[in-house]
Give the backbone structure.
Amino acid sequence: METKDKISRLSVTDEAMEVIWELEKKHGELMFYQAGGCCEGTQPQCFEKGGYFPRMNDAMIGTINGFEFWIDRDLFEYWKYSHFTLDVLEGWGPGGFSLETPLGKTFKVHYRLFTAEELENLEPIKRSE
């Protein structure tokens, strides 16, 4: 089956997309990384492309506006049966290194479990080497 028929693991809210466009205008190409630390389980970090290097076997679950969205390998194992929706909130999260922080905003991920039918037809992930 072709990728266009596959179920995406990742989506983005309109509000988060507006912030991404603003960051792209200022910083150029971007990337996202979601760590598995105590505070960052739902807060991905946004960097300039190449501003963070995924660890071996981390998972790239999709792209937003063409920008890769990477997940810590252990966090991915925990959430691999879930759809990620990138959202944005007003205020500062625990990270502080993410590009949206100076805007007074924080990216956040909302999860929902895939249905049995969706699990059978998910887009493949890419692993870092």
About this structure: The two ends are 26 Å apart (CA to CA).
